[in-house]
Amino acid sequence: MLCLGGNDLDKEKFVSEIEAHSGMLYRVAWSILRNDDDCKDALQEAAMKAWEKRGTLRELSYFRTWITRILINACYDTQRKRRRLVPLDSIPDIPVSAPDPALAMALATLPEKLRLPLVLVFSEGMTYAEAAETLHLPLATVRGRIHRGKEQLRKELTAE
Q1: pTM, 2 dp
Q2: Alpha carbons 147 and 72: distance in angstroms, whole number
Q3: Model confidence over 84-114: pLDDT tens digits?
């Protein structure tokens, strides 16, 4: 295990890690903010905060969950600053990771607290434990939210 204390995470490695996770980070930001400009702002803010706090990352293997948590906080900061509704016609067409458009639409109807754990686990491939760590929630809470989210999705998809 690589211990990173201090400034051992150089600029090249940092940029490489950010680029490797950029798609996942954008999708996480989108699941919270639902606005392309806000997502880009939150991504930039998260990258800047992560660079400033790179000395707090103890192991490179935790980079994904560490940067995701920073991004989620940046998204929440953006929400607090903006406090506005996004009209449906302003949502850009972006590639949806779900192969079924009905599933993507049903997922969008879920409240954020149920949608975000589902996105992290099933779309981004995090384990339940990684999602719990990223969201700063107990593992049982994440499991419960995923269960409730799946139930709501099932109801939404069978109601059509």
Answers
A1: 0.64
A2: 21
A3: 555 555 545 544 454 677 888 888 889 999 9
